[in-house]
Amino acid sequence: MKTRRSRLIAAVTAMLTVAVVLLWLFAAGGPDTDDDEDQVTATTPILSHASNGDVVVTLKPNQQTHINLRTAMLAPVNRERQAIAYGVILDPVPLAALDARLASDRAALEASRAEFTRAQLLHSEKQNVSLKEFQSARATFQSGQVQLNLLNQRMADEWGSAIAAMPQTQRAKLIDNLISREEAIIQVSIPARQSLGQAADSAEVTVLGAQAQPLLASAIWPAPSVDPNLQGQGFLMRVKTQGFPLRPGAAVSARLESSSADRGVVVPSAAVVRTGEAAWAYVQVTPTQFERRRLAGGTMTAGGWFVMRDFAPGDRVVIAGAQVLLSEEFKSEIQVED
């Protein structure tokens, strides 16, 4: 009897001991779990999206300090428009032939004008000119006018309005210089999706094979036609030789500049991150929020990316910690998916 009572007491004591241990373990384990959750919350950024769909990363001040995050304010920048264009030296023979035909037709028109004027005068005075002769002289003169106008339009279409508007003696001098290769007319085009604005104010031309001897254009005007390969804005330029022949058909490149300026900002190189084959930068929109914006339409400069949209003077961009922000952003997306 005593033995059964002893066993019962021992069993109850063991059960109470296990219960106490379990209660102690539960009490001890609870705070640790909360600490882990607080630690995860403290180190994991919060992701959201702006109204335009851009990702916004939220970081508390202690998180920003932890990754040594720093920002810089963007300043307004006015940048002269520049572009690189490509083209060839034009053959002056077609220009010379067209100019010679113009001179011939102009002389013929003057002769027909004189004949028409004489016939008109004699016919009005009822002298020895029949109506048929008068009408024939008038038709010849009018036909010559139409022909000359067509040739002038052809000159403008093929060689530009600047050359077409030159006085005959001035154009003849230009053609002489082109034939002797003292000067050259160059046609260049800017690649598609680029623009220099209304006109180029200066150009430095480099001829393939003579890169060490760049040429300055003495005159620039819009090209009358579009290069079928580049499909961009085109220009004709007049250049003088600098000790080497300017052979027709030679390939050239030209650095064009325009006095009209573009207004924008330069996003520092340190702020630029890349993902998805695009360049981005984080903009601080509140003390704890950073919006990732694409550098759309930006062009690389010595100090960073020049952009005219989506970034404005006064914006603060992340210049230290941007890559960490991007990594944490992707980590958070993976955790959300899991």
Describe this protein's structure.
The chain is an alpha+beta fold. The chain folds into two domains: 45-69 and 272-337, no CATH class; 86-261, no CATH class. Helix content is 42%, strand content 30%. It has helices at residues 2-43, 61-66, 93-124, 131-159, 161-164, 168-179, 322-337; strands at residues 46-49, 55-58, 70-73, 76-89, 183-189, 202-207, 215-222, 234-240, 251-268, 273-275, 278-286, 289-294, 299-300, 304-307, 316-320. Strand 6 (202-207) and strand 7 form a beta hairpin. The radius of gyration is 40 Å and the shape is elongated. Mean pLDDT is 77; it is low at 6-42.
Features:
2 domains; 7 helices; single chain; elongated; alpha+beta; seven-stranded antiparallel sheet
Compact overview of the structure:
This protein is of the alpha+beta class.
